[in-house]
Amino acid sequence: MPITRRNMLGLLSSSTFFLTLAPGAVISAQLPPDAPILKFPQGVASGDPQPDGIMLWTRAVPATDTSTPVHLLLQVSSNREFSTLLLQENIQTDAESDYTVRTYIDGLAPDTQYFYRFLGADKSVSRTGRTRTAPATGQPRKVNLAFVSCQSFEQGYYGSWARMLEDDRAADIADQIQFVLHLGDFIYERCWNQHVDGTAQSRTVPPFPDGVTTQENRYAVSLADYRHLYKTYLSDPHLQAARANWPFVCIWDDHEFANDNFQSFSTYDGVQILQAQRKLYSNQAWFEFIPAVLDELEAQPAHDFKPQKLGDDDTTQNQTALNSLRIYRKLSWGKYVDMVLTDGRSYRSPPCVTAGFSVSLGLPLDPVELVAITDAGSAYNEGNPPATLPYGDGTVANPAQHRAPGSMLGLEQRAWLLETIKASPAPWKLWANAMPLLPMRLDMSTLPFAGYHDSVFNVDGWAGYPYEVSVLMRYLGDENITGLVSLSGDHHMQGAGTICSSTTAADAPPVAVDFNVAGISSTPLFQDLMAVAKADHSNFASLVYRETDDGIEPVWNVSMLSGVLAAFTYAKTGFNTLTDWLGPNSANPGLQYVDTTANGYGLASFDAQEMQVQLITMEDCQVPFIDPPGIRHIAKFHLPHWSAGEPPVLDGPDFERAAPFPFKAPTV
Hints:
Blueprint: H1 9-12, E1 16-20, E2 38-39, E3 44-47, E4 53-59, E5 61-62, E6 70-77, E7 85-93, E8 100-106, E9 113-119, E10 129-132, E11 143-148, H2 159-170, E12 179-182, E13 190-192, E14 212-213, E15 217-219, H3 223-233, H4 237-245, E16 248-250, E17 265-266, E18 273-274, H5 276-289, H6 314-323, E19 329-333, E20 337-341, H7 357-360, E21 366-367, H8 368-376, H9 380-383, H10 411-423, E22 428-433, E23 441-442, E24 455-456, H11 466-478, E25 484-488, E26 494-500, E27 510-516, H12 525-535, E28 546-548, E29 551-553, H13 555-561, H14 564-573, H15 576-582, E30 591-595, E31 600-606, E32 610-618, E33 631-640, E34 651-657
Parallel strand pairs: 1-8, 11-12, 12-16, 20-22, 22-25, 25-27
Antiparallel strand pairs: 2-5, 3-4, 4-8, 6-7, 6-9, 9-10, 11-31, 13-15, 14-15, 17-18, 19-20, 21-24, 23-24, 26-27, 26-30, 28-29, 31-32, 32-33, 33-34
């Protein structure tokens, strides 16, 4: 029989299996007599629902040490009691995969709920998992999903998961979550000694098997270290319950490998260091602990982890590490939604502005124009980039004059993304996008007599790759592609807005929409900004926060939405009226909602005519809890589908319960 991608599963991994559920098949598989008693400390999970299949996962640890493969039974049923078995198969795992096991089951019915569990000897059994398949292609099925990001184990507790689980159990069946879209930072490779403001972390990750310890933090470097992080994170009962309750669809961001990384390079303290072996380890651990359908997808770029020798020279090592696992892929959910899942780290070019470069030019922040010049490189100004930069005395050479334009996706992945969304017949093209497309700029030029330039807040995100954003957005307009919605994470804030066809033209029409979700538990952006402003940047404190008798007001939200002049004026006077007069922030066209104080999650639903989104902000996630914490506020949005030649029109935010500063609370 010829070897196909499916046949090769047994060759690629000793603990990845492909099974087919066949109606009427005899259920006879049993454990061998020497099978061990098993523990399942990280629970169970499922991933990437297909109309006819699903990936199931567990970690099956023998109760006593053994050097031989561990046998276990997988059972699949149509009911939680397992009174009727649809499948029972003997599978195995071993220490080589840290006892993780991935099993792809096909032959399932579309749009159907299933239950599964794993069994060892002497009645040892995993918790029961619940999963579901996707609707059949063309099936007109409403889509309900949750989207999440950034779940630092140390910086907070998983009250967001606990609240999501409880509320979903109480919801009508038609409104219940069908799957969870995880947008990255499932783990954090670094464990900080304390928060940026000096307060203690909420929890502690136990010592790494290997790891590196610095004065400020510890971080993972080995395969054992990355496995240790996944096992620690999955020890949390609420995250474990969420993975057992819903199928997950996952991508990664930076912390699955190294903060603010590009390709196989770490960038700690602004120093770019090739760490290909470390990248290889992080890829392997992700593959072992995150159930994803990769090799099983036909005619798609995604593929399973392939262990390889790195080679000798830096270029070969880097490329080999990147090629070891490929996760960008397309999934569908019935008639209404096609999902494109991208990798914004493995193929991106280096940062266009290196750490400290703007400061060396006498600039307090990275100006929008400097980022545009250095990111576009040789393509800037229609192929006529300046030889020197227009800052300081004007003699500093343009370091990007002869460099190719920057890219977050890489040319191959970008071409795949554009081709895939163009070919999609679904009314909604859902982009699972680790980082927000929302413009996050400070209109510093509006401050009178200061001589400042409009500046980019964070060049690690899409704001640092404006050339490629324009390429992508222009393509949507040129090809009359409608219904593209980005769901994004990374920035530890809630946000929403339309995305224009150009990052520079003031009159560019909107062509897409982005919803940015706050971290499940990671420290909110405002908390870190306030700590930095208090400690090192008092001149900019007025753009970040304001102290009142009632507490701290997050003026940074005003800076993003209404502009720095409005924020500065409000910080000094406390008058909202002046803020309304001076805004909005013209450097952030389309931005409609920002809450940088948030932890929480998002809910989205789609049908043929519209999309509805709820950005849910939790109460304090940095303290332990028994009952699920409450919800502070819910920002609601309504997005009708739009036709070719029309712009998307995003309605909202409307608030349930309270409202974040500076928005007005709903009337009761």
